[in-house]
């Protein structure tokens, strides 16, 4: 059985695109506006109530991300109609993209699950992943999980990012030792 390749801290983040609801393409890891970093939240999809809760929680930390100079993008393997339906449960103002392919999920090294039934969803989907890409296009922080119950606590994450981004702290990318 083939094993998925996991992105390593410090790696150049792969160039992957997804689609926003207005039909425009967005490149994962390319910050928008004033931000020089981007947090890419890969989520399971509309079928996951924990994803809905987490996405809404991200919104409440939007200012803390912004203060740290970190842009937010969320993306899933859902289709356009699934994202449109999901937005009825979401209260977010950051961009959410759809159409992440299984090949792109493999490139990111996220865990991929089969739906338990057609009622859950109609496609294989990614388990949660967080990729924080710095101003050089390198993966500065990575967190992947094989289930929806384990995700970064957003208060600790945003405080940590603010600390990392403070030039006085000289904090390097951690976890880069190859073995």
TrEMBL record:
SUPFAM superfamilies on file: Thioredoxin-like
Coiled-coil residues: none
GO MF annotations in UniProt: peroxidase activity
Protein name from the UniProt record: Thioredoxin peroxidase
Domain (Thioredoxin) ranges: 7-166
Pfam families, A to Z: AhpC-TSA
Keywords: Oxidoreductase, Peroxidase
Gene3D superfamilies per UniProt: Glutaredoxin
InterPro entries assigned: AhpC/TSA (IPR000866), Thioredoxin-like_sf (IPR036249), Thioredoxin_domain (IPR013766)
């Amino acid at each position: 059985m083939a094993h998925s390749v996991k992105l390593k801290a410090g790696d150049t983040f792969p160039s992957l695109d997804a689609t926003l609801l207005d039909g425009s393409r967005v490149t994962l890891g390319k910050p928008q506006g004033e931000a020089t970093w981007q947090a890419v939240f890969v989520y399971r999809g509309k079928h996951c109530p924990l994803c809905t809760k987490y996405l809404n929680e991200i919104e409440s930390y939007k200012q803390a991300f912004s203060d740290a100079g970190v842009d937010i993008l969320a993306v899933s393997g859902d289709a356009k109609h699934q994202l449109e339906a999901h937005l009825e449960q979401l209260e977010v103002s950051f961009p959410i993209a759809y159409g992440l392919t299984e090949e792109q999920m493999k490139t990111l090294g996220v865990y991929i699950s089969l739906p338990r039934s057609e009622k859950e969803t109609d496609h294989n989907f990614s388990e949660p992943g967080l990729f924080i890409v710095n101003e050089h296009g390198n993966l500065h922080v990575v967190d992947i999980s094989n289930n929806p119950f384990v995700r970064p606590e957003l208060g600790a994450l945003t405080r940590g990012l603010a600390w990392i981004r403070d030039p006085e702290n000289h904090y390097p990318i951690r976890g880069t030792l190859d073995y």
